[in-house]
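Hello forum,

I keep getting stuck at the same step: I have a sequence, I want structure tokens, and every attempt I make locally crashes halfway through. Rather than fight my setup again tonight, could one of you with a working pipeline run this one for me? It's a single chain of 219 residues.
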Amino acid sequence: TPQGFYTEDLRRAYRLAKGEYADDSAVYAAFCRPPRLCAGGAENRKLTFAADFPPRYAVGEGFDCHAFAAGRKLVLGGVEIPHDRGLLGHSDADVLTHAVMDALLSAVGEGDIGVQFPDTDPAYRGISSMLLLERVMQIVARKGRRVESLSAVLMAEKKEHAKMWFKALGGLGTTAENLAAAVGIPYVGLSVTTLEGLGFVGREEGICARASVLLRENG
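Reply #2:
Ran it on my machine without issues. Output:
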């Protein structure tokens, strides 16, 4: 396999056939002529069962921003980062995890975190975004998908802050490990960059994050 026949020859063979035959080639051999074998190629795959078909993939993108606010903790990927201010939000305002959640939800065609966890619902006030990420992963599982890879970038200012956060995020590995464990993959690609003094991030008014995810169909 694959097998190919002249249509009328095969139809005539089946009109004559009685009993059971292993496949089309057996019928053709019995009533026409022996099949001719040709060299094949590994890329010419036989597709019979669902497992024979290559998996389908989906890509998702997520982006989020939060403003700095006094009297708040700075939480990134479930890790509390030393800083004199935190981020403003209804939940713990974990901007990095929010971007990851939106990337996952976009990949499975579901509404973003504002739809799933509205800031008008008191149940989500101050909640850990890592708990919300668990619920997002349940949605992903119900859609028959699993995470193949995840990468994210954190946009913050100043350079010394970015270096400090990068140490906490990448050097110590806690944040990357948290996210990887939450989505079920060995590692997460994570980086931190400044915006060279541009925009509200450059003015140290807030932090942005962007995430990209690749999902694979289960099976």
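The chain is about 35% helix and 20% strand. If your local run keeps crashing, start a new thread with the error log.
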